[in-house]
Design a protein that fits this description.
Strands 2-1-3 form a 3-stranded antiparallel sheet, covered by helices on one side. The protein has one domain (3-51). The protein has 2 helices and 3 strands. The chain is of the alpha+beta class. The structure holds zinc ion.
Length: 52
């Protein structure tokens, strides 16, 4: 089951599984929104995911 989310900045982040999604979102936040890095819990990040 793939996970996808559209960030507030318009970027779409997708991954094949939860671990990959957490890593992809974490990387997106670190590179694009460094002020938000580390502010979201695993549960919050997974809660944003749309599962397809
Ligand atoms: Zn973003």
């Amino acid at each position: 089951m793939a996970l996808t989310t559209q960030c507030a900045c318009g970027a779409t982040v997708t991954a094949e599984d939860e671990e990959g999604f957490l890593a992809a979102v974490g990387q997106h936040v670190e590179t694009t929104h460094p002020d938000l890095a580390g502010t979201m819990t695993r549960e919050q990040i997974l809660g944003m995911a749309e599962r397809t």
